[in-house]
Structure formats: structure tokens, C-alpha cells
Write a structure and sequence with these properties.
The structure is a homodimer.
Chain A lengths: L18 H5 L10 E4 L3 E4 H17 L7 E5 L4 H12 L3 E4 L6 H11 L1 E7 L3 H7 L8 E5 L13 E4 H6 L15 E7 L7 E6 H14 L14 E2 L13 H8 L2 E4 L5 H11 L3 E4 L1 H9 L1 H5 L6 E4 L6 H9 L3 E6 L9 E2 L4 H4 L3 H9 L3 E2 L4 E5 L14 E6 L11 H7 L5 E9 L5 E6 L4 E3 L2 E3 L1 H9 L4 E11 L3 E10 L6 H13 L11 E4 L13 H9 L1
Parallel strand pairs in A: 1-11, 3-4, 3-5, 4-8, 5-6, 6-7, 10-11, 12-13, 13-14, 24-25
Antiparallel strand pairs in A: 1-2, 8-9, 14-15, 15-16, 17-18, 18-19, 19-20, 21-22, 23-24
Chain lengths: ~550, ~550
């Protein structure tokens, strides 16, 4: 298009969007607010800004240059937060190592990302030492310690301990301008087949994700999650999609922040009470763990707003948290999307509903965020209607989507087919904009020529009071193509498959599901197989059920 | 720097930042909220989105193409807001015509911008008709009418009336993607010498300004001005620096919005009361006019937050507004800066102060916004210390600064000297980040080898209870170089020059100003000369005093 672009002054500064600009807001508004680690250490924003600069100088001293990749293996910590800034502000790339992968997969990702320096918590030193010989690109390691004597690491070249290395450095570092499209972060998404795939995000993408999140979670009355006076504690691993990007937003807001280290359910509940945490985010599994632990049973959670994502939030679990006083919101996104795509927003009418009726909106996937263009598409690529009943694959355009899979040319073209990112999720969109994820395309059960959502069935089964957890998968069936099989963890030993089938009859009678949606096969188990990030592992379930 | 930039999928969508993405949020959250014109017309966000698309189709039918310039001459209206979106979303450029300039200057700007189509309110038809023959680039006019018979326009080619043209069009329009650096808006800044200078802003700049403002004014407890449930009414002309960019943010937030048309003080007060307006912004002159009108005298303004900018806010005026119940904040920016640079943010300690003590912070210019890199520079370009006492010229880098003056190569290089935008304002910056504008560089009074701030003197004089308005300028003096001269409007006929000098003695005695800062020359007048945008016109004052 013949739009007009004017040539400005020769010296005009075009202002590339860089993470250092988020950092420039740290302490600008509330310099005395604190960043706290496990209740054991506490740093003001003023200290934080000095430490990030010390870390940057320490990284430079360790040989890190622009374009290098620096890996971190840590629990959620103030140190990890410091790395979120120092590494990319040097023009280097922060590799968030998923420490829940198998050792072979961890090594695969570190070689694939070509990590040069690795910061590793004492808890992961044995793993790192075991892998060291297989990682030719790694030139050195920095120890992250919570105290105590570290295990022996005969195979690793350890440059020093984090705090000692910081202490040697000046707390002033000039961070240069560079291209806003430079890669800032990378991490790996684990499908159920094939090798982990590397996604990556640029400075521009992270700045846009952050400033949008600062507005989205604070300025809308229907979504009052994170403001400058919030006390924020992530319960999503920082290696998992930037802890949903919230740490960057929290720094920009100068919030009080609590980093819980390794997740110990009773400690998490204690931290929430002690610091009056009012905002967290996690996957349903973690919420369940938190409510189910000893302190979870005896502690009220009034004033705690919890944003749930990663997989569908069962109504039963949502209800249990609300009964404890927690305020429930849902969000939707994935590793490829930085991640924010949709989030619960209750409009004026919805906010006026009784809590019980709000539950429906709070457990749907929310509405598209600002700057997110979301639609559902039929297999042909034709947009499906946003009428609440038509279903299609969710495709998106936003400013913060991975532009590809690193060194995976075929897979990245599939991801971006037709110029929109394909999420692999099947959903309907309601006329008021609420997105209702029905299933993963690959988990949809194709039975008798119809699509049956495994997630919808899981939700209905979970509403039985004696069901603690449930997974539904499609299994091959000669007559129908596939049939649903349910795997159930009972909270009451007397629960039987028949009870569940009977429970489902009410939804058949109300017309909510068809008669043929009720599974013939229901297996009671002690535990549902999970992936490294706590999601139901349907691949393993199918293999188990196939026996 | 050898940063890493990865090549993504061939079809990956890079998501240029375009105004259509702000528009996509209109009605996404609160579709039933209203956009109201003078209390006479009201449109839901759903209607607004349809009308903008009708307008875009009408503009296309009128021959508007990408790269063309479309001018608007209107008061603050829903129609102007519709133009804020429809024109740039077509790839065309919206020229905000400053209708307060002299006819010759208006013609100059319209020729300089090469306006092709002009939307003009009935009130400005006589002016437009008078100028028509001098505007060779203009191919047609669209009438904006509040009803009634328009004056005759023998020289203009009027294509039709706005509402009739919209009614003919479909309410669906596909807005294309294009380069985010395309010019979206242009308008003219009026110095006191030379021709008006054209500044311009791209889609990228306006999107960044908007999403930053949505977070800045809503998510910080020290600055709770604009959230989705706000009722917003601008009292800054929409032709003046995008009405400070707030209309774009208000649309993104789906706020209730009141557009007051031509400013009539009693109507403004009525609208504030009728619609429970809780956020407005204006220059001090307008605030004074509003407080001083008949209804202003008799009406409480509790719950009304007012953001003041454009020129320094005298403490006396701030106090008068606060006594009425209004909540006062200050901001700083200029035509070249889109405009947001700084805004009042009260941190936890400052919020705990009594109202009287908060006044100091509320009348300073505030702290730098997120994404704004602000510093003060000595004449050599060396940064001055942010210690509250050193002064220097304010220079900035942000993502939303005009990259030049259109067709003014020399002036734009001066503006961007050294890669930072030079504001021409002299300030000190306090250790807590508060910026205290001392003066325009050209208005600083150089007396006896010292710099004396004309604004500071104005502020002190305004604190005399019988002073209604004041201006101070430097006048040539044989002995001292320059000496301050004050021009004063008294609210009490008995006020004399001696009273003011005596009033200033207290500040000499407290050490706040030097003895030599007290003006020998104080002239009592009926009115202070103002520029077209309501600022004190020091050029005219100097000419008058030189007599």
C-alpha cells in the first residue's frame, strides 16, 4: 500500500523496544517495595537494580557476549528474576532449561540451544555434572546456592558461586541499544512425540507482552489481578513460558514479589498467609496440591486471586478454591505464544451475578486480550462463526508469537500455515467473546462420525463428589472408530465405574451430552500420568490402556 | 552488536503495530458502555464500531486512499473520535487542524500538509469557505452538523453531510495490514516565531503510546486516573496533541466517554455532574474558567480527577480546585512528544501525607512514565545530576516522539541534536524522580549573570489572595542584562504593585528567592495575552511592555 513514511531527522532516535526499558521502571515508583525469596531473603527494588547490573558485569567477566546463550537451571527465585533482565540486556539469550525433562532431553535442549554458560542451583548439580561431558558448547558453570556444602562436581568447570561473583562487580553497567528483533529468550516445548522444539522470543515481543499485561491485568475492573500495590507470588515455574510473563510486568509495576523456590505445598500456603499474597498463577494440578496439603486444609485463602491456565480448570476444583475464599480467573496460552492469549474478564452484568453463576465464566478460557486477534477455523481454514456452538481450531495473530521452531523448518511452516499461528486447540467462541476450549485437536475423540471433547467429559466426571482426578482419551474401536475411555482417581474407595456412568446420565437427560458420550470403559487408578510440566499425559494413558 | 536474529517461518506474521488493533478492543469488554456527545447524542461501543466502519467506507467513496491526508475542523466530538480511527486505519493521515490559529496560519498548515479532504463543522464553514480558494490540494469537504441550516459556502465543494454519508455505507470494512511506521496523524506546533511546524506520528508510535497509557493511568495506585469503569471527558481540544492521547486509551478500555463539543464552562460543569465524570484533563486556563463560571461557583466537584498540563499549575489554582473536592494531578509533554512524558505518581509515603502537603507533589510535573528516558542536560550536553537543585534542559527518548518537523530539515536536526529530543524546557529532577520544570529556556530571565525562572516568580505572585492571573517576562536592562517584569490581573481593585512586592518579601526572608528576584516593574492589567491554545503569550507581553 502506498502509505506515507517520512524521513525524520538524521539523529532521531527510533527507540527500539528492549528489555532494558522494563528494567528502567524497576524502583521508579516504589523503590522500597521488596522482592522476597522463600521468606529467607529480601531485596528492595533499589538493591535489585544494583544486583542486576552486578550480575551483568559478572556475566561479561565470565566471557558472555551478545549473541551467546546463557542457560539457567533453578527453581523460582530472585536470582532467576535477575537473569530475566541481565542476560538479554547484554544482547545474550536466556535459555530457560526445563529441569523436569528427562536427562537425555535436558542434554538435547542444551546442545540444540548451544548454551555457553550455565547457572545451576545446587539441587541440579548432580544432573548437570552427569550431563557435562555431553555438552561441548558449555564453557563454564555458575553455582546458585541456598547455603550448605554442594555435592562434588568432578566433570564441571565451576567458575564460582553466584553471590561471590556478584560481590566482586560494580553495580553500574551501561546496557547498549540494539535491534529490537534480537532473540532474548528461548525454551523448549515438549510435545508427546519427537524431540522438544525450541521456541524463541525477541526483545520487542517481550516488551509488548509486558506493557500490554500491565494494562490488561490492572486497568480493567473485570480483571483486577495485578496492580502496583499487589503482592505477587508465581507458582508457575520460571522456566515455563516466562512464568507467563508476569514477573516482567510485576517489575514494571514495582509490586512486592515473593519467589517460593522449590514448590513445597505447605510452604506455599505459609508464604501466602505471611506476606498477604493477593495474586498468583498456576496450573490446576498445583492448585489441587495446594488445597490438598495439610496447611491447605486448615487455611482460608480470602483475598487471594489465582489465575489458572495450562489446562482446563475443572468446575469442582474451582468451587473448592472459591469455598476457601480464593478468587478464580482463567487464562489461555501456550509455549509458542509467550503466552498471553485470553483471560477471564467479567463485564458489568457478569460481575453482578451470584458467585455460583460467575463460576461458568471464571472457568471458561476468557476473552482475547488486547492486541490478540483470535479466531476459530474450520479444517479448510475458513473462519467459523463466534456463536457459541460452532467449533474450530483456534488460530491467532499477536505481537508476541514465536516466529518459528529453531532449526525445524518443516514444523514451523505447519505452525504458521496461512499466516496465522495454529494452536492445535479446538474451541467455540461465544457471542460475548468468551473462548471455550473443547480439546486438543489430537485429543478430540472421533466416534461414530462425531467429535467428542475429552475435556468436556473430564469436566463432567470431575463434578462427581468422589472423583479426585480424571482423564479421558479416545481409544480405537472397530465399530465406532474411537470410543472414550476414562481413567479416574477416587477420593472415596467405594466409588465404582457404574457410579460415574450413573452420574453422567443427568447430563444426558438434560441434553448436555449425547447418550453415546458416556464411556463404557472407566478404569480406577491411584494416579493419572502427568507430563514434566504437570499436564495430563494422554500419550502415556493411551499406551497404558492399550496395555 | 552481534546479537542473534532468527529467521522464522516463511508465513510467520510479524504483527505490525496498527491503530486497527486499538479499534479491535472497542466493545470487546463492555460493549454497552456509551460514547456521549454534549448530552444530546449517545452511542454504544457496538454502534461506535459500526459507525467507524461506515465512515471508512464513506471516505473511500469520497476518493480517500492510503497516503492521502484528511483534515478535520471540529470541536471535541464523537465524530472526531470516529475520525481518529477511520482515517489512519485506511492508511491515510489525519490532520488535526488547529482552528484557533489565524486564518492565514490555518491555510498555511492545510497547504503544508497537502490536505485532500476536509471534514468541517458548521461553526467553521465561514472560515473554510473564506480559505477554499487558497487550498489547491483540497478536493472536497464533508459537513459536520449539529442541526440547523448551514451558512452559504459558495467557494466550497461540499460532498455531503457526515450522517447522511455514513447512512449510505455498509458497516463492515476490512482494514489492511501495512507498515507500522506509516504516518497516522499530523498537526502543527505554533512557536512564537516563524511558521507553524508540522509534527507527525506513526501507527507504531500511537499504539505504543496507547497501551502504555492504559497501564500507566490504571495499574498504579499512585496514579489511579483511568480504568475501564471511568467516566471520561476531555477538556483538551482533540486537535491538540491527540487530546493527550487519552481518547485512544479510553476506547481500548471501553470507558464511558463524554465529548463536550465547543467548550462552554457552564455546560462542562453540568456534564460533569450529570454523567458523574471522574476523569478529565485540561490546561490551567480551562480549569480556572471552569471554576470561575456561574455553575462552577455553586457546584462541588468531589470524585472528579483532573490532570493538568500544558503549562505549570499555580498552587493557588490547585488549592481552589481541591477545595471544591477535585483531585489534582499534573502531567508534562508537548506537541513533539505525542505527548506523555511525565505524570504525577504519589508513592506510598506521599499518599499518606495530609492533602496540604501532597499539593507540592501534585503541582510538580510528576515522574517519567514507563518507557520514557528523561534526563536534564547542561548546555554542553553533559547530563546534570538528579539532585533537585542542578538545572538543565530536559531531553528525552521514548517510542512516541515526532521523528522530525515535516519539510523543515534544519529545525528537525536542532530538535534531535545528539540523538535525544530537546524539549526546550529547563528543569531540575528530584532524587525521588519528580521533575520540576523551571522555565522555557527562552523565558528564563538572565539577570546579573544568574538564571531566574519566570515560572517560579509567577507561582509566588499567584499565591497572593488578590491575584487572579500573572505573567512574568525578562525585559532588557542596561545594567543587569535583563530584569523581571510582572503583568498581573487583580481580583480586587485595591491591589497595588507595592502589595505584591511586599508579598514577595516573605520568600526573600525565607531564602526561597534572592532579593534581586523581586520585580521593580509590576503592571496591573485586565487580561493576560494568550496564545491560540490558551498559554501565556510571552512574545506579545514583551512587545506590549516594550510599548
Amino acid at each position: 500500500m502506498p502509505v506515507k513514511i517520512l524521513q525524520g531527522a538524521e539523529n532521531a532516535h527510533a527507540y527500539p523496544l528492549l528489555i532494558k526499558q522494563i528494567f528502567a521502571s524497576a524502583g521508579r515508583f516504589e523503590p522500597d517495595n521488596q522482592i522476597i525469596y522463600r521468606g529467607e531473603q529480601s531485596f528492595s527494588y533499589s538493591e535489585f537494580t544494583r544486583r542486576v547490573q552486578q550480575l551483568a558485569n559478572a556475566l561479561k567477566a565470565a566471557g558472555v557476549e551478545a549473541g551467546d546463550t546463557v542457560a539457567v537451571m533453578d527453581w523460582d527465585s530472585h536470582r532467576y528474576l535477575e537473569c530475566y533482565f541481565a542476560v538479554p540486556m547484554l544482547g545474550a539469550i536466556l535459555h530457560h532449561v526445563n529441569i523436569r525433562l528427562s536427562p537425555e532431553q535436558v542434554a538435547y535442549t542444551m546442545n540444540h540451544a548451544e548454551d555457553k554458560l550455565v547457572l545451576v542451583h545446587d539441587d541440579f548439580l548432580p544432573l548437570a555434572d552427569q550431563l557435562a561431558a555431553q555438552l561441548p558448547t558449555v564453557q563454564g558453570y555458575i553455582r546458585l546456592s541456598d547455603g550448605g556444602t554442594p555435592p562434588a562436581t568432578p566433570n564441571m568447570s565451576v567458575l564460582g558461586e553466584y553471590e561471590s561473583l556478584l560481590a566482586e562487580q560494580s553495580s553500574e553497567c551501561d546496557f547498549p541499544d540494539f535491534d529490537e528483533n534480537s532473540v532474548a529468550t528461548t525454551f523448549y516445548t515438549t510435545g508427546t512425540t519427537g524431540n522438544p522444539k525450541g521456541v524463541y522470543f525477541s526483545h520487542r515481543q517481550l516488551v509488548l507482552h509486558t506493557i500490554n499485561m500491565v494494562g490488561m491485568l490492572g486497568s480493567y475492573e473485570g480483571l483486577p489481578l495485578l496492580r502496583s500495590n499487589s503482592v505477587y507470588m508465581p507458582i508457575t515455574p520460571m522456566f515455563h513460558v516466562h512464568a507467563w510473563g508476569v514477573p516482567y510486568a510485576a517489575v514494571m509495576l514495582n509490586c512486592t514479589q515473593i519467589y517460593p523456590g522449590r514448590y513445597e505445598p505447605n510452604l506455599l500456603v505459609d508464604l501466602i498467609k505471611q506476606y498477604k499474597v493477593d495474586f498468583s498463577h498456576c496450573v490446576p494440578t498445583i492448585l489441587q496440591m495446594l488445597l490438598g496439603c495439610e496447611k491447605g486444609h486448615t487455611t482460608r485463602l480470602d483475598g487471594w486471586k489465582i489465575l489458572i491456565g495450562g489446562s482446563a480448570l475443572p468446575k469442582g476444583l474451582a468451587k473448592a478454591a472459591m469455598d476457601k475464599g480464593a478468587d478464580i480467573y482463567s487464562a489461555y496460552g501456550m509455549s509458542e505464544t509467550c503466552p498471553l492469549l485470553t483471560v477471564t474478564h467479567l463485564n458489568k452484568e457478569q460481575r453482578a451475578l451470584p458467585a455460583e453463576e460467575q463460576l461458568k465464566y471464571r472457568t471458561l478460557t476468557g476473552v482475547a486480550s488486547n492486541l490478540v486477534d483470535l479466531r476459530i477455523e474450520e479444517p479448510s481454514g475458513k473462519p467459523a462463526a463466534h456463536n457459541g456452538s460452532d467449533v474450530g481450531e483456534v488460530t491467532v495473530q499477536t505481537p508476541w508469537l514465536t516466529q518459528g521452531y529453531h532449526k525445524e523448518p518443516a514444523k514451523q511452516e505447519e505452525l504458521w500455515e496461512g499466516g496465522r499461528l495454529h494452536t492445535g486447540d479446538v474451541a467455540s467462541v461465544h457471542p460475548d467473546g468468551f473462548v471455550e476450549i473443547k480439546d486438543r485437536i489430537k485429543d478430540v475423540i472421533k466416534t461414530g462420525g462425531e467429535w467428542l471433547s475429552s475435556i468436556e467429559l473430564e469436566d463432567l466426571i470431575s463434578q462427581h463428589p468422589d472423583v479426585a482426578a480424571v482423564a479421558v482419551v479416545g481409544m480405537p474401536d472397530e465399530k465406532w472408530g474411537e470410543r472414550p475411555h476414562a481413567m479416574v482417581v477416587a477420593s472415596n474407595n467405594e466409588l465404582s465405574a457404574g457410579d460415574i456412568q450413573q452420574h453422567l446420565q443427568q447430563f444426558v437427560e438434560s441434553g448436555h451430552i449425547s447418550k453415546w458420550a458416556v464411556p463404557e470403559h472407566i478404569t480406577l487408578v491411584d494416579e493419572i500420568p502427568k507430563t514434566s510440566v504437570g499436564k495430563i499425559n494422554k500419550k502415556v494413558i493411551r499406551a497404558t490402556l492399550a496395555g
